[in-house]
Design brief:
- The protein is α+β, with helices and mostly antiparallel strands and 158 residues long.
- The protein has a domain of 95 residues: Immunoglobulin-like.
- Helices cover 15% and strands 34% of the residues.
- It is built from 1 helix and 8 strands.
- The strands form 2 sheets. It has a 4-stranded antiparallel beta sheet, with no helix packed on it. Strands 2-3-8-7 form a 4-stranded antiparallel beta sheet, with no helix packed on it.
- Strand 4 and strand 5 form a beta hairpin.
- The longest helix is centred in the N-terminal third of the chain and has 24 residues.
- It is flat, with a radius of gyration of 26 Å.
- 9% of the residues are buried.
Length: 158
């Protein structure tokens, strides 16, 4: 018996899109990586890093993880965030139809610029979002200098 499968062009387009996303992720991401937030690797943790004149802010998504189960270390200008996404036990006879949530340990390391004052770092945790405020040392903050003319010589007309 022959099975007839209906052709769906959307599936092929989605496969092409996913392939293109992988190409851009693998090839272009290192091009745009700044020296101030060099990613040293790790997995399972999405984060954003922003910078102002006074500080860097690292925001990481750790949904379902207790603040007590998140470890934060800064050593030798490397920020390491680690922990574990714990899975609840399934009921007897329960089986997955679709499983998209990630479980297990995570660790992410990020090289920080040497201008960070690690002693004044602050961590906040709310609704599964970890926010680290990493102040810059005062000497590392940018300044604007105003130039004032001194000893201006007026030209005389002849």
């Amino acid at each position: 018996m022959t099975t007839i499968t209906r052709w769906n062009p959307v599936n092929e387009l989605m496969e092409f899109r996913n392939a293109m996303d992988r190409v851009f992720d693998e090839r272009l991401r290192p091009t745009f990586r700044a020296a101030t937030n060099e990613d040293l690797g790790g997995s399972g943790l999405s984060m954003d890093v922003t910078e102002t004149n006074d500080e860097f802010v690292v925001t990481a998504a750790v949904p379902g993880v207790s603040p007590d189960d998140v470890n934060i270390e800064i050593e030798d200008d490397v920020l390491t965030i680690s922990g574990e996404f714990k899975r609840e036990d399934k009921s007897q006879g329960e089986q997955y139809i679709r499983q998209e949530l990630h479980y297990g340990s995570f660790e992410r390391a990020l090289r920080l610029p040497p201008t960070i004052d690690a002693e004044k770092a602050d961590a906040q945790f709310e609704h599964g979002i970890l926010r680290l405020v990493l102040p810059k040392r005062p000497e590392a903050r940018s300044r604007t200098l105003k130039i004032t003319p001194k000893g201006v010589i007026e030209a005389s007309k002849s």
